[in-house]
Every structure is written in C-alpha cells, then in structure tokens.
From TrEMBL:
The entry's keywords: Methyltransferase, Transferase
Composition-biased stretches (Acidic residues): 30-42
Protein name from the UniProt record: S-adenosyl-L-methionine-dependent methyltransferase
Top-level taxon of the source organism: Eukaryota
Organism: Bimuria novae-zelandiae CBS 107.79
InterPro entries named in the record: SAM-dependent_MTases_sf
Example GO BP: methylation
Record Pfam families: Methyltransf_23 (PF13489)
Compositionally skewed regions (Low complexity) per UniProt: 9-18
Region called Disordered, residue ranges: 1-48
Any coiled-coil regions, as ranges: none
Amino acid sequence: MASPKEKSTSPAPASPSSQHGALNVPSVDVEVESLEVEDDGDSAYGNDLESYTTSLKSTVLNYRFENGRRYHGYKDEATYFWPNDDEENDRLDLYHHVQTLSLDGALHLAPIGDEPQRILDVGTGTGIWAIDMGDKYPSAEILGNDISPIQPTLVPPNVKFEVDDLEEEWVYSTKFDYIHVRYLACSIRDWPKLMRQCFKFVKPGGWVEFQDFDTWFYTRGGLYTKDSKLSQWTDKLREGLRKFGNEPDPGPQIEGWVREAGFANVEARTFPFPVGTWPKDKKLKEIGAFNLVQLLDNLEGLTTRIYHNAFGWNPDEVKVLCADLRQELKNPRMLLQHNYYVVWGQKPLNAVD
C-alpha cells in the first residue's frame, strides 16, 4: 500500500473553534511557487442489500427537483443539502481522484491486510471508492450504502449497494473487517452516534477509517481575508447547516470522536488541499488544479438549497453570489487551501459492544 509523503502530513488541530477567524494554515506547510500576476488579481486558472432495500426503490427514486437541480427523495429532505444529479456526481468522482492523489494513490491508510473479507463503505456516493476496492481486493465482499441510489449497476461481482439513512440504527446481521467513512462533512447530525455504530459493527481486531474536511479556507500569506466573499460564504454555510443540526466541520474533531468511541491504535494525518495552481510542489499543484475545477463547476449546487432553506435566498441571488465567488477563486494571489483529515483506528480484541 502506498503511504503519504512525510512532508504532506502533520498532527490535526485540536478543534475547529480554535481556528475561527484564523487565516494562516495551521501546521500544514505548502511552499508557494513564484507568481508573476498583475495587481488587479484578474488572472484565472450482500445479503443486507436484498433484505432491506427492495421495498424502498419506488420511494427513493421519487427524486425532488428544485431550481433546476435534482435531490434525493428518501425521507427527511433536510438531512442532505447537495444535489444528486449528473453534474454533482461528476464533481464527487473528481474529488475521489483528488483524494487518492493526495494519498499517493492509496485507497486507504488503515492496515487492513491483503485479504479483507467484509467491507462497509458508509455514504458511498457514486460508489467509485467501493468499486475500486472491489477490484483491488477480490477476496472481499464490499457493501456501500447511501441515501441516493445513484451508483452504477455494472460493478465487480463482489460489490453491492443499498439505500439507507446511515444516521438511523444499523441492522446488519454480520460484522465487518473494515468500515470506511469519507466526505460526510455538512451531512451528519450526530457524529458520536455514527462512531458508536461503527464500533458496534466492526469485528474485534477490525479497522475503521474516516476521511473528511472542515469548511474553513486558509491562506499562506495571500490576499484572502475574513472580509472576502469566500469567507462570508463559508460563514453563512456553517450558520445555515447548524440551523438544521448538521455539523459542517467534522475534520479536526474526528480523532477525538474515534478515541471516545473506544477504538485503539488510533492514528491521524492532516493533508493540505490547495485551491489553484499556486503551490510549487508538483503533486500539490495538480491537486490544487482539480480542486479549483470542482469548486468552480458546481458552486450553485453547493449553495442553492442551504441558502434557500435557511435564509430564503432565490436562485438569482445565488447566481450573483456565485459569480463573485468565482472571481475570488480564480485569483491565484489568494493562495487558498483547506485541510483534509484522515483518522483510522482498531477495535480492541477484547472489546464489548
């Protein structure tokens, strides 16, 4: 298994509250490439599946359509604010590429061995990670769950998907060797409960791994400030999400939650995710380019529903805001980045659920 380069990692900050208002990146160093830019800043750059989901298909495929975008139709619409249409799915697949690129091609960092038998991918999204794992580990039975049935039907024979609300009580009859949870920032109300469910349904000696973000942007000495449109946008996203009980900033809190749930041998890494091609390092420059593209392509998808539901904004107001955000994102002198947190831990062999 490939491992991340040492210079790309550092201990995670203790809590997001300690970062509020801070515009210098905590602990994760990225060297800036020399830029020649005009001062005006205008330059751009299993069985569980069959036992539970059959009766739900007609309900979950009854999608909701709002402001030209498609959203899930399963239960409480306030639990997940992002679209599930092709445009958003393309963004999620691009993010999968960025995340694996950050980990030097690795799909996970937990030491799960060469022949894991049963793997759960919580909040699988488009299913791309589960499919890649199915190809890598033919010994494993891999199950992915999600609130939207957007996964492909042509998948490896050892990969299956189910529709489920992962915040409800899990009903699996067989425990897992490895549980993988990725990219659920802004989507979960009760993270400690999620940790407890992972602990209950992983085998003694098995592993869990969480990979996620917070919503803060930082700068390495660039033009980004707390008064910028981007800073105001993320402040408002956090405010809106918390109105509905969703946690927008799980990344730096995950290590503490994993330990509190009872996992042992816990390890944590923090990776820089630049926005744009400003880093000098070749890999970080590539990550930054893809990260910029995925933001520019779907700002409306990330903004419209939460701004409408929480603050009453109409689509035209959102479009004007997103145009302003794109101008700031395209400015390489902002030197933007955010952080990516990876935490893994092992269930003790003598653990009691």
